[in-house]
Design a protein that fits this description.
Length: about 170
């Protein structure tokens, strides 16, 4: 009996990591036409209409673009994406905004791609869940806000990106 339970647990873990490994297949080339490791100049070349902003990212810089492109088949009319720069001033993460009303649609797409999310948490009106691949790439969804100010963010980060603030 113990052996069966252990075997089942191992198979479930393998299945979860097998699905999560597709994070790299889905996001390994970058986000919305911007490859991981791109410089700020590269990002501006793709999205000249964006804004260079100072941020609490490891490189203390980010680039905000109000692009509104559909992402993973989920419409994002009027919403933007924040490209976070690492200490080397290269894109290491991106946070993509969605209407709060699209949260179920986004979760369904992500779950179909990567399997059930790990680490779901809910506190102070904020719900967070995500996925991690075996190589360390992560994708997390944050749902938060009140009244008409509710929003959903999908944040994807490369394995090398560390979200530790750099004294910004």
């Amino acid at each position: 009996m113990r052996k069966r339970i252990f075997t089942l647990a191992v198979l479930m873990a393998i299945a979860i990591f097998a699905k999560a490994a597709s994070l790299n297949a889905t996001f390994g080339g970058g986000i919305l036409g911007v490859p991981w490791g791109a410089t700020l100049t590269d990002v501006v070349g793709v999205y000249p209409q964006g804004d260079h902003v100072f941020a609490v990212t490891p490189g203390c810089r980010a680039y905000w673009v109000k692009d509104g492109q559909t992402f993973l088949g989920v419409p994002r009319d009027g919403h933007g994406v924040l490209f976070a720069l690492d200490k080397s001033n290269r894109v290491g993460a991106a946070s993509i905004a969605f209407d709060y009303e699209r949260k179920d649609e986004l979760q369904a797409v992500l779950s179909s791609l990567f399997g059930p999310p790990m680490d779901p948490t809910h506190s102070n009106g904020r719900f967070r869940y995500g996925w991690r691949s075996a190589d360390g790439m992560t994708a997390y969804v944050n749902e938060f806000g009140e009244g008409t100010q509710r929003i959903v963010w999908l944040s994807v980060a490369t394995p090398a990106y560390k979200s530790v603030k750099d004294g910004c």
